[in-house]
Every structure is written in structure tokens, then in C-alpha cells.
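[Automated response] Your request has been received and processed.

Submitted sequence:
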Amino acid sequence: MKPEILTSNGIRKESMMIKIAPSILSADFSRLGAEVEDIRLGGADYVHFDVMDGRFVPNISIGIPVLKSLRAATELFIDAHLMIEEPVRYAEAFCRAGADLVNFHVEADSEENILAAIEKTRALGKKSGVTLKPGTAAEAALPFIEKVDLILVMTVEPGFGGQSFMHGMLPKIETIRGYIERYHPLCELEVDGGIDKNTAALVKTAGADVLVAGSSVFKAQDRAKAICELKNA
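Generated structure:
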């Protein structure tokens, strides 16, 4: 029998296999294909593909051409996190470029347009998700929870790598785990921001089952060991 985890909000759930999604923001872009192959061999489950438009968040990162190139170079599940305004405009393009899951910030547009982006993604046979910034209440996930495959809780402010983990987000993770257990048990709960082997243990106890890690994986001398430590934290 699998052991059970009791989260601090009283929800009891079976122990599950934790998935690790290294963020390529911390990778060496001059050899991106080799970098992603390295984490695949090291045991990564997803590759986290952060897209920033310079408007929704201050920085600009990567987009559709890089996604197409990465799709041709790897069989890893690509989790595209769109930190862009009005993401419904690009939902179809990211699906066709090779994303396996496209994730939309609830703050990036109206509820109606985020739902439309989710529907476009599902219509193309891809998975969808929604993301909540640190200042966004857990309840903001409720209009989408039965329609998505993943909910992402940010434990840093989106737009910059290398930030410190916000411990104040742990109650939000617990609350959203409760929503998932009640409304859509097959939905995954992902956490992104400041994840290392110490904070991984905290978010797993709170109910997360997909962990996004950037520098703690890509900057490690032994990436396979780093991924293993995150999974077993």
C-alpha cells in the first residue's frame, strides 16, 4: 500500500510520483538541444519553457521559433508558460509549434478570454493550464479548474530567474490542492520559483506534484543527482 500524505489543511492523499520540470531560462542557450537532452537523461519529466513579452512582465525571453527548434530536438514533454498579455492571440501558434501543455496567467486577460485560450488549446489536442502570480488569491483558479490539466502557483514574482522562494505561498498551494481534490482530482499542481531540495520538501508537503526548477538543476555539476534530490526531498 502506498503511504499517505496529510497536508496541513487536513487533506489526505496517496503519495505520488513527483515530476520535475527544469526551466530552460537557466540553460545555456548556445547549446540548448544538448542541455535539454542532458536533463532528459538525468530524469526530468517535463521541460519548462518560459515565454515573456516585456509587457505582462518586464523581461523578454523566447518564443515560437525557439519552441519549434526545441520540439525538433527533444521528445520531452514541453510545458509552455506564457507570461504574455492577451495569450488567446497566441494559444494556437504555441500548440502548433510543439508545446504539449500551454499555460495561461489568469491575470493576463479577462476570464472569458482565458477560457477561450483554454478551449483553443484543447481543440488542438493539447493540454492546458492556468497560472497564479503571488499576489493573486487561490480562488482565482476556480473558474478554470475543471477545464485545465494543470494549475501553476508562482512562489516568486514572474519575469526574473534566481529569486528567493516566498514561504507565504505555502497556504495557497494547500488551498489549491484542496480545490483540486474536490473539483478535478486528475489536475496537476505545479509550483515555480526558488525551488531547491529544501523548498521542494515544503511544496510537496503542501500538495504540489510538479516542481519547476531552474538554477538548482541547470547550474548543478551533477544534474541527474539534482533532479533525484528534488524528487526525493
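Summary generated for your ticket: Confidence is low (pLDDT under 50) at residues 1-14. Strands lie at 4-6, 12-14, 19-22, 46-52, 77-83, 101-105, 127-132, 150-154, 188-192, 210-213.
If you did not submit this request, please reply to this message.
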